[in-house]
Design brief:
The complex is a heterodimer of chains A (109) and B (196). Chain A is mainly alpha-helical and 109 residues long. Chain A has helices at 2-11, 23-29, 48-57, 73-82, 94-108, and strands spanning 37-39, 64-68, 86-89. In chain B, helix 1 packs antiparallel against helix 3 (127-156). The chains are: A mainly alpha (109), B mainly alpha (196).
Chain lengths: 109, 196
């Protein structure tokens, strides 16, 4: 799935990416140079909402985009409450990914 | 003349039998008690059978449904990829024709569309992520069924050694029980409404 996301990002013009295998690794690799976080929900060791919560608790204000198969109302709300800024449901198209990223980056100014 | 009293005495080697009325009544009581206990055991067996059915049939039905979803998801993705490959094939022909007749604009359009078709095929491969989660859910249901069956088996024989499958269920954090490729437009619309 990561390869598909990275390929889609390259397709829409985003080529500078850092990859992580799960939320725990992403937390370790995160630094101030990251301009946007894209995370799945279902991951071993640390789920997407847990990762988003941990990132916010660190004081990170970076936009977080969740890309996931989960689409139940309570799951979407949980992501929102965890600090996620936008949400893409799988399966997605590169166009939808680009729209969401552009909107997040525009909001950041 | 002397009177002789003869006592009626049973030989020492003969077995003792409940030939008295009190013995028969006692046997009747024992049989009554045994009947009641047998009925309790039968009742318990009926309850356990119902529990067994409830524990397993529902989970097995869900597992079966999940596996059908996997088949349908895979079939849908395969169809999408095949369709895209056919269109890509036609675009390659169009590209060749455009290059033969020196039509650069037509050739460029064909290349752009070809690139789109290739990326749509890559997108269709997202089915693998969905089916992985569907299969994980099916595995979790089977693990649950196994655990319940073991519990019920132990009711019959607490001392029994029961070998359970070493695999166990998958980590519930790694799959969504509702994972599907269907209706993505409606599901995305719900997410957009909540995040608006």
């Amino acid at each position: 799935m990561r390869r598909i996301v990275v390929n889609s990002l390259q397709r829409v013009g985003f080529t500078d990416t850092i990859e992580a295998g799960d939320g725990q690794e992403a937390l370790e690799r995160f630094d101030a140079s990251v301009g946007l976080v894209i995370t799945d929900w279902n991951m071993p060791n640390m789920t997407g909402p847990e990762f988003a919560t941990a990132l916010r608790e660190r004081g990170a204000r970076v936009p977080i985009l969740m890309v996931t198969a989960r689409s139940a109302r309570e799951d979407i709300i949980e992501a929102l409450q965890a600090g996620v800024n936008n949400y893409i449901v799988k399966p997605f198209t590169p166009q939808v990914l680009k729209e969401k990223i552009d909107a997040l980056l525009a909001a950041e100014g | 003349m002397s009177a002789f009293l003869l006592a009626d005495k049973a030989p020492a080697s003969a077995p003792h039998a409940p030939t008295t009325l009190a013995g028969v009544a006692s046997l009747s009581l024992i049989l009554e008690r045994a009947t009641a206990e047998l009925q309790t055991v039968l009742g318990s067996l009926r309850d356990n059978r119902a529990a067994l059915e409830a524990a397993t049939l529902d989970r097995l039905q869900q597992t079966s449904d999940k596996l059908r979803q996997v088949t349908s998801t895979t079939e849908g993705a395969a169809t999408d990829i095949l369709d895209a490959l056919e269109r890509a094939g036609a675009l390659v022909d169009d590209l060749e024709a455009a290059e033969r007749t020196s039509e650069p604009a037509r050739a460029q359009a064909a290349r752009d569309q070809l690139r789109d078709e290739i990326f749509s095929m890559m997108g269709a491969l997202q089915f693998q992520d969905i089916t992985t989660q569907q299969l994980a859910h099916a595995a979790a249901l089977l693990a649950e069924t196994e655990a319940r069956l073991v519990q019920i088996a132990r009711l019959f024989d607490p001392a029994a050694t029961i070998v359970q499958a070493a695999l166990g269920g998958p980590d519930p954090r790694t799959f969504d029980p509702g994972a599907t490729t269907l209706d993505s437009g409606r599901r995305q619309a719900l997410a957009d409404a909540i995040f608006a």
